[in-house]
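Please fill in the sequence for the structure shown.

STRUCTURE ENCODING:
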């Protein structure tokens, strides 16, 4: 009886997990990154409910003063349309950020963490918070 109960609970948990993962449709590595960020965001802010693509979009388009380049935002390099190729400030081509057209996007936890850290610092002069990083990842994944 106990085994049956455990089995039912496991199946329910699995269904809930798969349903949740499907809703966000991240690959396994990105899903793990987002989940860790979600836990961190919740521990940093008791009022945190969940990530928001709307907030992520705002972050993505927020322009900040930049010494050499006037004003920059995430969209400066990645373009306002994430399905298009972007350009670094030095003019090198960046493949599209959108996972919908670039299957290699958001597939490596190492790349996601490395570039979010570097890019947030470049635009905002500081690292992103767990909430901000989660918000932009949800936004990028939806575009
Ligand atoms: C100065 C140009 C520049 C700016 C500004 C910039 N990025 Fe990037 N970003 C890059 C480059 C270059 C790469 C790495 C090359 C590549 O992956 O094509 C990259 C990679 C990434 C990746 C890795 C994606 C993956 O899985 O391959 C993410 C996520 C990302 N950027 C998000 C952002 C966000 C969010 C912002 C704004 C806070 C931002 N970027 C601002 C240039 C920029």
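FILLED IN BY: designer on duty
SEQUENCE:
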């Amino acid at each position: 009886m106990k085994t049956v109960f455990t089995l039912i609970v496991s199946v329910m948990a699995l269904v809930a997990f798969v349903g949740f993962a499907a809703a966000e449709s991240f690959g396994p590595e990105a899903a793990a990154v987002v989940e860790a960020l979600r836990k961190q965001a919740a521990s940093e802010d008791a009022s945190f409910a969940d990530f928001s693509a709307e907030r992520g979009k705002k972050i993505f388009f927020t322009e900040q003063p930049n010494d050499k380049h006037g004003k920059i935002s995430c969209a400066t390099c990645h373009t306002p349309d994430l399905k298009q190729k972007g350009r670094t400030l030095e003019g090198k081509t960046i493949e599209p950020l959108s996972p919908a057209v670039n299957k290699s996007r958001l597939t490596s936890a190492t790349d996601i963490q490395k570039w979010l850290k570097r890019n947030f610092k470049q635009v905002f002069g500081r690292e992103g918070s767990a909430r901000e990083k989660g918000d932009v990842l949800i936004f990028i994944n939806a575009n």
